[in-house]
Structures are given as structure tokens and as C-alpha cells.
Amino acid sequence: MNTVTEYAYLNARVSAMAEKLLPEEKLIELLNQPLGQQHIDRDTELDDLLNDEKVDPSLIEKAWFMYLVADFRVLVRSLSGAAREFITYWFRKCEITNLKTIVRGKVSGLSPEAISKQLIDLGELATLPIEQLLRTEDVSELLRHLDSTHFSTIARQSRRVFEQEHQLHALDAAIDRHYLLGFEQRIQALDSTQRKHVTPLMGMLMDRFNLLWLLRYRFSYQLSPAETYYLLIPASYTSINRTLLQKLVELNNLEEIIALLPEHLHTVIGDVEDTYSVEHKLNTELMQVAQYTLRWRSFTIAKAMAFVLLRELEMRRVLAIIKGKRLGLKSGVILGAADAYSTTLMI
Q: Which of 5, 103, 111, 219 is deepest in the core (most CB within 10 A)?
């Protein structure tokens, strides 16, 4: 079966879904609409949530996420093998979010009931043994319960980090890192055509994570070069390769790091002066790469991945706008926060 035939259904579905993505002018319109009159031209129920100032934004996020899950179910319908595993793995990060929520709840001494209310309801897509994890006594026991699940590698590595350092930020970083490293083997499992199309988008995504994490670990957390390098993601499909990462972690400030970056990344962030601006520039570049992929990479898994990424970034930006408006912030501040907030990507 050739690529066009194999991905015809996926291409048609993604193209139809992409028509519903909010253009930039719609986000500006949302920013200018009075509270209580928010409208995104997509779903009455979601509009009702956006307009109820008493509704916790986390409930809006959960509702929006369920629409994303519905899209996901449609997208994977025609996929099999390595392509299905690749796109499914992205959504596994929602379980990573639940795992980290349970861990934080345990560390904070919250009851299982209180933790459960904060979790994303994944329904039939859930694979984590949530009830067992909620009943565990401590974080180490919780991670041991994952040894027989899809998350066994993440759990073993994260448990080792936590037992050595007993710091929540170190455990969070270890979980994120080992989850993202899983994309390496899934990208390598794709056929050569699909791998060629998907690597520019995934490479930009990982370069962005590496740069932001490097700046955070070295200059905010004051970690050593060796500790910082351990928490980064050396992958074969990134522009910032293993050798360059080893050099970057040894540098002492943002200016030195930017000077050593590959030409296209230097062009993107070469004129910035602080980490906040780095986030904004990298987010903008990632969105542009995703938009290009969505438009021009037809009949590939890359098109579906670009749509999923843009859909989630859209959700993050809208939620940031709603929160900013409720706080009475100025429009410029809200838009800046929306771009920075999108960097979390639910990880």
C-alpha cells in the first residue's frame, strides 16, 4: 500500500479538523470580548464554561481536553503499527500529568479523595492503576507499583532519582525526561518516509525543551553542568545534538549559549536578553513549524502530530487569556502570558 492510499482517511480527517483551529485574529477578538460574552465558535457547552466566572479554569481545561481526546480517537482509527504507537504515545503524557499530580498530592499530604478530584478523567484510554496508586503510602511505593505497566522504565529511573535527592522538582524533571526520551525509539520505528516528515517538527519541539530546561536548571536551580546534562534529551533528530548539549551546559550565561547555537536557532533567538523572551520566540517558531507541517506535509503522520500540537497550544492560549481577563490584566500582558503559558504542553 502506498503512502497516499494508507494515509488518505487520516489526511482527510486532519484537514477537516484543522479548519476549526482558531486563527490569530480570533484570539485577539476573544481578548477584546467582555467577560461573560466569550465565544469561540465551536461548542455551546464550552462557551458556557468560558462565560461562567465562577467556574474553576481547571474544569474548563478538563472539558476542552475531552474534545481533544475525541479528536484523537478519530485520528487513530485508520492507523496501525508504528504510526499508531507514535501518535498514541503523545497522548500518554496525559497519564504522565496524572502521575505527577498523584505524586505531588502524596508529598503534600493530600487525601486520596482530594487528589482524585485533580486528575484528568481519561476513561477507557487510561492505563495507570489509579486506585492502587492513590492507596500507596509514599512516593517510592507508588513508583514501584508502575513496574508492570507501560511506565516501568520511567518509574525505575524516577524512583532512583527521588531516593537519591528527595526533591520534588528533581522527580518531576526525571519523569518528563524519560517520557520525552521515549519518542526516540518511536520515531526510529517509523518507516523512512514518515520519519523524514516528522523529524523537523519533533526536532524543533525537543530543541525547545532542551533550551528552556537548560536555562532553568543551570541558572534558576543552579544545578551543575553534569546534573543539567543528565536531565536533557540527547536525540538523533534534534539540531542541538549530544556533543553540542555537552558544550552548552558548561557555559555561564544566556549570551554565550545563544552564540553557540546552530544558525537557524540563533536566527530565532539571537536578539533576546532574558529567558522569558527565549520562551516567547521558541513558542512562536514551534507554532510556525507546526503550521507549515499541517499545510504541506499531506498524507503523513506528521500532519496529524502538527494538528494535535496546535490544538493543544490553542487550548493553553485561550485558558491563559481567560485567566488574565479575570485578573484584570492589560491586553499586552495577557498575550505575553498566553505565549509563555503554552510552553507547558501539559507535561
A: 103
Please check whether residue 170 is in contact with residue 141, taking contact to mean a CB–CB distance below 8 angstroms: no
The CB density around residue 41, as the number of other CB atoms within 10 Å, is: 9
Question: Could you tell me the domains of the chain?
Answer: 1-78+298-347 (1.10.132), 82-190 (1.20.1690.10), 195-219+238-289 (no CATH)
Alpha carbon of 80 to those of 6, 41, 56, 302: distances in Å? 10, 33, 38, 15
In terms of pTM, does the model score above 0.90? no
Check if the beta carbon of residue 168 is closer than 8 Å to that of residue 104: yes
Type of residue numbered 154: I
Contacts of 209 (CB under 8 A, 6+ apart): 180, 233
Q: What is residue 78's three-state secondary structure?
A: coil
- Cα–Cα distance for residue pair 200/204, rounded to 1 Å: 6
Farthest CA pair distance, the chain: 56
H-helix segments, the chain: 3-6, 8-18, 24-32, 44-51, 57-76, 81-91, 93-108, 112-116, 130-135, 139-144, 152-165, 168-189, 192-215, 225-230, 242-248, 254-259, 263-269, 275-296, 301-326, 331-341
For the chain, residues with pLDDT lower than 50 are 343, 346
Q: What is the DSSP letter of 345?
A: T
Q: Is 216 helix (H, G, I), strand (E, B) or coil?
A: helix
Output the nine-digit C-alpha cell for 46.
464550552
**Quick one: cell of 230?**
543528565
State residue 41's pLDDT score.
56
What value does the CA radius of gyration of the chain take, rounded to a whole number of Å? 20
Residue with cell 533550551: 211
Distance between CA atoms of residues 128 and 155, nearest Å = 12
| Integer Cα distance of 302 and 308 in angstroms | 10
